[in-house]
Write a structure and sequence with these properties.
Distance between the termini of chain A: 30 Å
Number of strands of chain A: 6
Structural class of chain B: mainly alpha
Strand order of the largest sheet of chain A: 1-5-2-6-4-3
CATH class of the largest domain in chain B: Mainly Alpha
Mean pLDDT of chain A: 76
Strand content of chain B: under 5%
Low-confidence stretches of chain B: none
CATH topology of the largest domain in chain B: Rna Polymerase Sigma Factor, Chain: A
CATH superfamily of the largest domain in chain B: RNA polymerase sigma factor, region 2, helix turn helix motif
Number of domains of chain B: 2
Mean pLDDT of chain B: 83
Number of helices of chain A: 10
Radius of gyration of chain A: 43 Å
Radius of gyration of chain B: 18 Å
Oligomer: heterodimer
Number of helices of chain B: 8
Distance between the termini of chain B: 59 Å
Number of strands of chain B: 0
Helix content of chain B: over 70%
Largest sheet of chain B: none
Order of helices and strands of chain B: HHHHHHHH
Strand content of chain A: 5-15%
Order of helices and strands of chain A: HHHEHHEHEEHEHHEH
């Protein structure tokens, strides 16, 4: 196309556009009056409050508020969780109780646990067990005194003690392990399990589980604790007297029941049905009595023998971390709560993501179809 | 919406009076039928009145918003017409109602009128927006959901086609 043709074409287009602008369609009077009526209706509505729309600033505020609520929720959740944990642990009977039964009196039906970690109470290795025991009482005041006070007395009780003792080297470790076994036999006890782990390099350890007659457990504990430097000790005492008495009463009751049932069965006037019922009852009572006797026996043997677990080591205990401050605790709890919220949100997102993806695909498909349809309609 | 934005917002009566002519011209070019355009314009304004609380002057001007509503109404009309045609095709009773009253403006030359009628609705739409309403290319592209270059291309092709058809009609 030449330049003049081009100019002509542009001029023609410009002329057409001018004509179109000049003869722009005007609304009829009827339409104008219809719109006027609508405008009046619109003016009457003016006093109505406008619908509040969400703009970006509000969205930002809403997001910030949501985040704040999430953080506050995290703090509250953390606090609640910690409260729950502490209350649960207070109620749980098997949890270690840190208070020490000073009087030596039985602790009722609840088990008492004494837990102590000490690093300063050094003990010299003595020649004889007796001498060592005497020394230990003097030097490890906090440990041995409490050992002396935690006793079963005359009551039936389940005593369990765990000691972690430090020795100087591997040779000492073997020697003291052997001595602990000897002490157990001296006090008419026996070794349940023994394990020595002494590598060429690093920390050597040994593990012993001893059963000592309850009546001599106190002496045995003192003797064993003098074999090394006490790093930690844990002693639990569970009174079994109440349980044993209750079992004895139940056994007595069952015996009476069996006797009366046997007498009743001797009656010749009994009907066959009543006889078979009584027979079944008798069998049940006998079975129950047998089971109860076994349990009673186990309870008594638990009370007769104390379990002492001794761990020897050549290494030191790791130093306990410093107690975190209140702010640190609050931050930790808040973080715990927040992370649990995040994990729940992530779970929700993972579960919902396929549906969200499908919804997004559907929306895209619908949009594409709508656009295509619009294009088709406008091309006509 | 802030208080300032609410204060700035024109009321419906003012917007309707101000933009009736533009919206009507746009609809008339889109559908190519005067009486249908009048009905659709009225329908569009009724819809606008119902949804006036949703209008946000920050997002678009009142004229653009009203034209968008009018476009939706016109597309609904096209859809209905399309369904009607298909239904009537099935029963072989099709009638060309839309031929009855073409009208793109009083005083237009018959050649230009008939040339406009031969253009597609999409082509007439871009002419109405760019030439009659004198919107800038950016606004029109955003309004139609196409790129700016596609919008310019569509306009130049439509005008070229229109002027060619006018020229050929005059020569005949």
């Amino acid at each position: 196309m030449s330049r003049s043709e081009n100019d002509n074409s542009e001029e023609r287009i410009e002329k057409t556009a001018r004509e179109l602008r000049k003869h722009r369609p005007r609304p009829s009077d009827e339409l104008v009056s219809r719109i006027e009526r609508l405008a009046e209706r619109g003016a009457a509505r003016r006093s109505h409050p406008a619908r509040i729309q969400v703009n970006r600033r509000k969205l930002v505020f809403a997001l910030a508020a949501t985040l704040s609520v999430a953080v506050a929720g995290g703090i509250v959740a953390g606090e609640l969780q910690s409260t729950k944990t502490s209350s649960t642990s207070a109620l749980r009977p098997s949890t270690k109780i840190t208070s020490v039964q000073k009087s030596g009196a039985p602790a009722g039906s609840n088990p008492s646990t004494f837990n102590n970690q000490t690093s300063g109470a050094a003990t010299d290795l003595a020649q004889s067990n007796e001498a060592l025991a005497r020394k230990s009482v003097g030097s490890t005041a906090s440990g041995a005194d409490s050992l002396a006070s935690i006793t079963t007395g005359n009551r039936l009780a389940d005593l369990r003690a765990t000691l972690l003792l430090k020795v100087e080297n591997r040779d000492q470790l073997s020697k003291q392990t052997a001595r602990a076994m000897k002490i157990a036999r001296t006090f008419s006890g026996y070794v349940v399990a023994a394990q020595v782990n002494a590598p060429n390099h690093g920390v050597a350890t040994s593990y012993l589980q001893l059963k000592i007659p309850a009546a001599r457990s106190q002496e045995a504990l003192i003797a064993i604790s003098s074999l090394g430097k006490i790093l930690s000790q844990e002693i639990s005492l569970e009174d079994l007297k109440v349980a044993a008495t209750s079992q004895s009463k139940q056994i007595l009751g069952l015996r009476h029941e069996i006797t009366s049932l046997q007498k009743a069965l001797e009656d010749p006037s009994l009907s066959a049905q009543a006889r078979s019922q009584l027979q079944a009852k008798l069998e049940g009572a006998k079975a129950k009595l047998g089971a109860l006797r076994v349990t009673h026996q186990q309870t008594i043997s638990r009370g007769r023998l104390a379990t002492i677990t001794v761990n020897f080591t050549t290494g030191d205990l790791k130093t306990a971390p410093a107690q975190p401050s209140r702010i640190h605790k609050a931050i930790n709890r808040a973080w715990d709560g927040l992370s649990s919220e995040i994990s729940w949100a992530a779970i929700g997102l993972i579960v919902a993501s396929p549906f969200l993806l499908l919804a997004a695909l559907l929306a895209l498909l619908l949009r594409y179809r709508r656009r295509r349809e619009e294009r088709r309609l406008l091309e006509k | 919406m802030t208080v300032a934005a609410l204060e700035k917002r024109p009321d419906f009566a003012q917007a309707a009076r101000e933009h009736l002519s533009a919206v009507h011209a746009y609809v008339a070019y889109l559908v190519g039928n005067r009486s249908v355009a009048e009905d659709l314009t009225a329908t569009a304004f009724e819809k606008a009145l119902r949804n006036w609380s949703r209008f946000d002057p920050k997002r678009a001007s009142a004229r653009t918003w009203l034209c968008a509503i009018a476009r939706g109404v016109a597309l609904d009309h096209f859809r209905a017409e399309d369904r009607r045609r298909r239904r009537e095709d099935a029963y072989a009773l099709r009638q060309e109602f839309e031929i009855a009253e073409p009208g793109f403006g009083d005083g237009l030359s018959p050649e230009l009128e008939s040339a406009l009628a031969t253009l597609s609705a999409g082509e007439r739409e871009v002419i109405a927006l760019r030439v009659l309403l004198e919107w800038d290319a950016e606004t029109v592209a955003r309004f139609l959901g196409i790129s700016r270059s596609a919008c310019s291309m569509r306009l130049s092709r439509a005008l070229e086609k229109l002027s060619e058809r006018v020229a050929s009609d005059v020569e005949v």
